[in-house]
């Protein structure tokens, strides 16, 4: 009987304390994994943060200010600049003239519509303020002295965003530009160098021709600028006196658009940095530029 009680007590002790030959449950709780860090984006892609400015493609609007929203006759775009930027446009071609003592934008004839340059620059500043990881480019066709343009930039509060670039230095990466706060690149065909951030476009870039009236006219031959320059402006729009949605319909879709981008890149051995179109909302421009940046 005594032996039976001893055996029972031993069994109860083992059941309560566990088998010394088997490890008990680990009293240390398993840590719960934290959320996966969100990668930093540059112009919408984390892969672009480490790429130099001249290694990136930017969807670009020809005569960005000339749009139906702002009431232009025979416009080149449907939407105003804020919508363009919101939709993913990162290059803006702007014209600048003096009219009645004010710096304004219009295309060839003021009777077709005008828009104050300070208003467009203010819209760009507001976009940059609201989107701190985006880099934007302006390419001016200018008929205004650089000092006058600089005054308008100051009035719009945009100078602090303008990136100064020397010809001798390599372009910074998008990530570096974003960290520095200098996220606006400004090119001009007149008076470049009037400020260190007001860059002479044909010293840095070259382009295809731009006077195309039918799809068969499209060419990849170099036009203005030295083809040895690192930035490539691919003009891809048709003009028959004015642009139109009907003309954009003819060339803004793939396979024609994608094939021309590929052909011109191979012909010139350069990334198509500024794929420049009328009515960007028609066709595949944003899709094709995104593919270039993959």
Percentage of helical residues?
25-40%
The whole-angstrom Rg is: 29 Å
Q: What name does the CATH topology carry?
A: TIM Barrel
How many domains would you count in the coordinates? 1
For the terminal residues, how far apart are their CA atoms? 83 Å
| Total count of helical runs of at least 4 residues | 9
Keywords:
10 strands, alpha/beta, ten-stranded mixed sheet, disordered N terminus, globular
Structure description:
The chain is α/β, with parallel strands linked by helices and 294 residues long. It has a single domain (44-292), classed as TIM Barrel (Alpha-Beta Barrel). 30% of the residues lie in helices and 16% in strands. The protein has 9 helices and 10 strands. The protein has helices at residues 2-17, 81-87, 117-130, 146-156, 174-180, 201-204, 245-251, 256-268, 285-292, and strands at residues 58-61, 91-99, 102-105, 115-116, 136-142, 184-188, 198-200, 205-207, 231-235, 274-277. Strands 1, 2, 3, 4, 5, 6, 7, 8, 9 and 10 form a 10-stranded mixed beta sheet that branches. The longest helix is centred in the N-terminal third of the chain and has 16 residues, at 2-17. It is globular, with a radius of gyration of 29 Å.
């Amino acid at each position: 009987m005594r032996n039976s009680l001893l055996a029972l007590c031993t069994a109860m002790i083992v059941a309560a304390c566990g088998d010394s030959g088997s490890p008990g449950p680990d009293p240390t709780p398993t840590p719960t994994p934290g959320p996966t860090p969100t990668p930093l984006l540059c112009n919408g892609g984390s892969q672009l943060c480490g790429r130099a400015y001249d290694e990136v493609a930017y969807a670009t609007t020809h005569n960005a200010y000339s749009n139906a929203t702002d009431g232009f006759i025979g416009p080149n775009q449907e939407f105003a600049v804020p919508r363009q930027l919101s939709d993913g446009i990162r290059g803006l071609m702007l014209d600048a003239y003096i009219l009645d003592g004010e710096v304004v934008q219009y295309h060839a004839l003021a009777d077709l519509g005008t828009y104050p340059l300070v208003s467009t620059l203010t819209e760009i500043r507001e976009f940059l303020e609201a989107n701190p990881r985006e880099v934007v480019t302006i390419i001016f066709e200018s008929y205004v002295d650089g000092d006058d343009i600089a005054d308008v930039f100051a009035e719009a509060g945009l100078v602090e965003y303008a990136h100064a670039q020397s010809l001798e230095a390599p372009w910074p990466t998008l990530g570096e530009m974003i960290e520095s706060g200098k996220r606006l690149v400004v090119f001009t065909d007149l008076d470049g160098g009037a400020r260190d951030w007001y860059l002479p476009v044909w010293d840095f870039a070259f382009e295809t021709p731009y006077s195309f009236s039918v799809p068969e006219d499209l060419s990849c031959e170099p036009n203005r600028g030295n083809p040895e320059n690192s930035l490539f402006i691919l003009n891809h729009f048709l003009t028959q006196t004015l642009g139109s949605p009907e003309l954009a319909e003819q060339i803004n879709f793939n396979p024609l658009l994608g094939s021309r981008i590929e052909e011109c890149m191979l012909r010139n051995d350069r990334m198509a940095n500024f794929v420049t179109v009328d009515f960007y909302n028609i066709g595949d421009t944003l899709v094709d530029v995104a593919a270039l940046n993959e």
